[in-house]
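Hi U.,

Before I forget, here's the chain from the pilot set. I'm dumping it here mostly so it's searchable later in email.
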Amino acid sequence: MPAFCAIDFGTSNSAIAIPAAASVELVELEPGHNSMPTAVFYAIEGLASFEDPQLHYGRAAVAAYVEGVEGRLMRSMESILGSTLASQATDVGGGRTVRYLDVIGGYLQHLRSLGQARAAQTLTQVVLGRPVFFVDGEPQRDAAAQAALEQAARAAGFADIAFQYEPIAAALDFETTVQSEQLVLVADIGGGTSDFSLVRVGPSLRQQVDRRGDILANYGVHIAGTDFDRQLELAYLLPHCGYRGLGPGGREVPSKVYFDLATWHLINTVYSQGRVAELQQMQGFYSDLRQHARLMSVVRQRLGHSLIGQAEAAKIAVAEAGKTVLDLGALEDGLHSVINEPEAMQVLAADLDLIAAAADETMVQAGVPHARVDALYFTGGSTGLAPLRARIAARFAQAQVVQGDRFASVARGLGQHARRVFGTASRRRER
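Structure:
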């Protein structure tokens, strides 16, 4: 097999594909998972020296952070590309600093090592996915972002590097099934962003390497799965702890702690000794002292990440079954919260409408009427939410609706592109 691979380096999750006999295969990055969180944790505890931090990747990195291990968690690393942060260093604890770009390089190196173990050979060639725009409306910063990612990939050990646009990659699997040229609207809705791309696909286009001209428009909003989790937690879980509750004088309880508890990267800030003491002193703000007692249970037992995890699980359960019951026994024996789909979708309605409106804006930018779209291709974890898919599909009544692999479509498409780019080159060298 040729020594190439493809990497979907995503904001929330990443994956790597390697060549297989007739196509490509995704590498198992963690037991039972072909994708893993784009996360690195620099642990301080138990170090032999400050120069040798214990590194954790993916779910292990998130688990270390949630469990309160001393150290620094790095997430959403793609967002620093194109910014001045890429060349700057950050404190990871224990008196050590690391350049942001080296964090990315180390993560890519970890993916490469897992790919090499599966392929049983050294991988020197890679196709990297990239958004249509790393930075909207600033071509120089956009070019700098790709150059920075290429630099990180070279530091990870790759010698031959190519790029492909993520919406093109997502459309490649669909393209293999069409018999004529079509317009497909790719809806890539993950944890942090909802991106739409109108892409031209067809048999005559499959072997072309440069496909940017086939992207007729691209538009997105920074609203997605983590926003849904936050809204559901605020609506169904945190009111039991006093969110939007009233004090003895009728004033609403201060809300900052609840927004922090519903925002993933701010949860640990609530656990500081000073913050806990401050919250304890706010008991007099609550008419219902049970709400304050539950809040103190959350912060003292460090249940914040567990609660947001329950909100995410509830979102999935409601999408699949239409109803779920949340067990909140960790806050108080026998406490629970019932969530029905109609009510939950009402809570999420504003966010869902903004995402669906982004699909409309994509068509406006392309100058193409909705009726011209032949297919809707859904990918990304949040497209598992049926009411969201329905909201978007309703705008394209004549289009075929296709659900791709929510977590692997982009990586598979990048792998197919890598086979065309590097597989063809390898065959030429063999001749």
